[in-house]
Amino acid sequence: MPTLMLPSFDQTLAAHRLEALTATGVETLQINVGKLCNQTCTHCHVDAGPSRTEIMTRETMDAVLDVIRRHPEIGTIDITGGAPEMNPHFEYLVEQCRRAGRHVMDRCNLTVFFVRGKERLPEFLRDHQVEVVASLPCYLEENVDAQRGKGVHARSIEALTRLNGLGYGVEGTGLILNLVYNPVGPKLPPAQAELEADYRVELRRRFGIEFTRLFTITNMPISRFLEDLRRSGQYDRYMDLLVTSFNPSAVPGVMCRSLVSVGWNGVLYDCDFNQMLELPLHRGLPRTIEDFDLAALERRRIVTGEHCFGCAAGAGSSCGGAVGSQTVS
User: Fold this and answer.
1) What is the count of structural domains for the chain?
2) What is the pTM of this model?
3) Side by side, which strands form the sheet with 103-108?
């Protein structure tokens, strides 16, 4: 069992003369459309998998779309899961968001393209100019398969080749293909710019694959990854690493400051991580998508926990990767 005595995240902010974490606006609405996934990854903070039944209904999705249509200030719609494409209403959500003029991101595991009935997804994403944010924790087969399952690397490379063939990641097409790196095990990601350069060289040399950007994202001590840390006796060491690597300069760029997360059941959260921990918004704030109040949400106080150290360690971590320099003060 964990024995480490940790300072709270709020105490750490105060120790660095930083104010409590508050939102600066709502530029992005991140929608978790369900926990159903065709993979079972060791680092997954959602605990997603093939047996999960939590799926956003069409009724809840329409309530989300109503908010999107009423608030053009929210320019980006970030669709996540599980494998978000496994939701039977995924295409409907994308179509309606694009019709409303929003930029749409799909957090894709790549292997979903090989699920029966999903074979035309790459063309659908291209036709609607959806930004693809694709998980690829390494360009080496052994590392990818160790984290995401046997055969995932080969299918991921095949999927990326297909996306390149449709114009994704190719300069001048406007089709964005970003890759996501998660460390294998309890450690911080390396410097994002340097790793991106390595990925670009190795993926091009080995497979002829091109991409737009690489995002490095810290593994959060939540759900399946947390269970693995405790089972292997590495929880204390990992949390000590996150706390001692706290970087004040990363705090302004953490994702919760400009984002609101919507759960599969319509409940609102400060971020996807708080959603998985079922940490609701502060008392007095809207609770569900039906109660959405932009004015109340865009300057809200953010609920924090020990997992927040993951977003502020090293160069920081957000849904768009590193948020600052690797220097820690």
Assistant:
1) 1
2) 0.91
3) 213-216, 177-181, 131-135, 103-108, 76-80, 28-32, 259-262, 268-269
